[in-house]
Specification:
heterodimer; A: 236 residues; 2 domains; 6-stranded mixed sheet; two-stranded antiparallel ribbon; 8 strands; 43% helix; globular; B: mainly alpha; 62% helix
Chain lengths: 236, 341
């Protein structure tokens, strides 16, 4: 069985692209293949003109292709602020030798990154939680942590796997607001989402998958006019 | 308390503290369940032994067979022991840590420990097989008479210097951004990888660092007890160190030290105080030979289960890392979120 079969999509820079489809369509598998957490058995993935098909996950992330996960993936025994700091690149203390050389060697980087992380926490309204363990946060807050963590990497393209699932409606509104503002700043986003009204509000283009294949793409309005897509997924 | 007894207690305590700090880096901080830890201590001990001993053909040493015999002066055997632990970590780590995940790593490392012990036991020409190595020279024994109290103090001092050195290294690692990356990998390896961390490189690095420290602990021990054989590094010895780290507090260096003092050292000392004959209802009862060591193992097993059940964070839990200025940040700058070039 092929979870993802012959899928070919193009994600436009500076836009939010939605990826929708019924359960088991292969959306999350496709996201995992894009991020490198699952290997592609065939085909190729190009990112900003480079073939990244054989690159490991961490190299893709360093290049700016960063994913979040369908299930909460916080570092539970690290504080919220530490969760963000883990993602920050260019810290001289983030190597064995740097660590052994001591705080004098890396403290300037650390202070700069703490300020950057606090800026994000402030923007996402979580400053008061910075010293709490991430594992004690609510589902919605964990989603925010994941998004903030990904942003610490200064991504070029963000892969969001159901960022609103299991989240309180108020936080959904907040996440929507943040995603809008990120798009305004030029970030490229590919997002798997089940809530169609959110997809309609957020996404510039939508790709529909079913049984591992792409069965259509375009704006939500144009997709609603295609009979087979309506039958496959959009009924109701 | 005579000097030799005190030296024995303190040197063993130092060796156990060093070993627990290393295991804490691997298991407590990084989540690597290294069930073959004792093998790296043994590698250090054997290496230090053959580096300091004369060739097996030398007078007085003909009764044993071993490779090497370089008669190197102190501290080269100890440095060699630490290097041996680190070098052994490379092939073991490359085989076990690259492809396998968590519980399978633990099984593979346990099997590695059993295989290593069996091979060394049966390959006599290599390190004298089951009989092991004896008459290992002590550090600077030509300069200071090992039979004197001064030598015991000297050895305690050497061990203490190594404890301080290892504590320094462990603290620098745990309290650095590198230590934070290790803890992140421990909590969620896939997420750490998706944030640009190379989990294999992180695991290999800390596995080798742990191997170097374990090797040093073996070198210190063999220089003190002057013999080393497969019977002293059977895989259950690793379990004692795990019990120490779990009881003391995973991820906390102070917890590792506390665990080392409570479990390996404490158990030895407490059971030493048990009488060899009990008086029950007027009857003198002599426990069978081997009962006390067997009960020690039962107690260690119960201790691990008890702590994991009732206080999994240990006596000294991992500290929360709070940064200066938390949590009020009125002047935090707005940040540019997207790379534009």
């Amino acid at each position: 069985m092929r979870a993802v079969d012959g899928v070919s999509i193009e994600v436009m820079p500076g836009r939010i692209t939605g990826l929708i489809g019924p359960n088991g369509a292969g959306k999350s598998t496709f996201m995992a293949v894009l991020a490198g957490t699952l290997p592609a058995t065939s085909g190729s993935i190009a990112f900003e003109g480079s073939d990244i098909t054989r690159m490991p996950t961490y190299t893709r992330a360093r290049r700016g292709l960063v994913r979040t996960f369908q299930l909460p993936s916080e570092f539970a025994r690290l504080t919220v602020l530490e969760n963000l700091l883990v993602a920050a690149p260019n810290n001289r203390g983030d190597s064995l030798w740097g660590a052994l050389l001591g705080p004098r060697y890396w403290m300037a980087d650390e202070n700069r990154l703490v300020a950057q992380a606090r800026g994000l926490l402030k923007r996402f309204g979580m400053s008061a939680k910075e010293s709490d363990y991430a594992g004690t946060m609510s589902g919605g807050q964990k989603r925010l942590i994941e998004i903030m963590r990904a942003l610490m990497l200064r991504p070029r393209c963000l892969l969001l796997d159901e960022p609103m699932s299991g989240v309180h409606p108020k936080i959904i509104e907040e996440i929507q607001h943040y995603l809008h503002s990120l798009r305004e700043e030029g970030l490229t986003i590919l997002m798997v989402e089940h809530e169609l009204h959110l997809v309609e509000e957020l996404c510039d283009t939508v790709v529909v998958m079913a049984q591992g294949k792409v069965i259509g793409s375009g704006t939500m309005a144009s997709l609603r006019r295609q009979r087979e897509i309506v039958d496959a997924y959009l009924v109701g | 308390m005579n000097t030799y007894y005190a030296a024995n207690l303190l040197v063993y305590a130092g060796v156990d503290i060093i070993a627990c700090l290393a295991l804490n880096l691997q298991f407590g901080v990084s989540g690597i369940v290294n069930f073959s830890f004792i093998v790296f201590q043994a590698a250090g001990a054997y290496a230090a032994a053959v580096l300091s001993m004369p060739p097996h053909t030398a007078s007085g040493y003909e009764f044993q067979l071993y490779v090497g015999g370089f008669q190197l002066p102190f501290p080269l055997p100890w440095i060699g022991g630490a290097l041996a632990g680190g070098l052994l970590s490379i092939p073991v780590g490359l085989v076990v840590l690259r492809k396998l995940r968590s519980d399978y790593q633990a099984i593979a490392l346990l099997v590695t420990s059993i295989i290593a012990n069996t091979v060394i036991t049966n390959a006599r020409p290599f390190l004298n097989g089951a009989a092991g190595l004896a008459l290992v020279p002590q550090p600077l024994q030509d300069q200071i008479d090992p039979g004197t109290d001064w030598y015991q103090y000297f050895y305690i001092g050497l061990t203490a210097v190594c404890v301080v050195l290892v504590w320094f290294v462990a603290s620098r690692i745990v309290n650095s951004p590198f230590g934070r990356s290790l803890r992140a990998m421990r909590d969620h390896e896939l997420a750490a990888s998706a944030l640009g961390k190379n989990p294999v490189a992180l695991k290999m690095t800390i596995f080798i660092v742990g191997g170097v420290i374990a090797g040093l602990s073996g070198a210190i021990l063999v220089g003190f007890i002057m013999l080393w054989a497969p019977s002293v590094w059977l895989f259950p010895e690793t379990i004692i160190l795990f019990a120490a780290v779990i009881v003391g507090g995973r991820g906390n260096n102070m917890g590792a030290v506390l665990g080392a003092l409570l479990v390996p050292v404490g158990f030895e000392e407490v059971t030493r105080l048990l009488p060899s004959e009990f008086n029950m209802l007027g009857f003198a009862i002599t426990p069978p030979v081997g009962l006390i060591p067997a009960l020690q193992w039962v107690a260690i097993g119960l201790l691990i289960i008890g702590f994991l059940w009732f206080r999994p964070e240990g006596v000294r839990p991992e500290p929360r890392h709070v940064f200066d200025g938390a949590p009020v940040v009125p002047d935090a700058p707005e940040v540019e979120l997207v790379r534009t070039a």
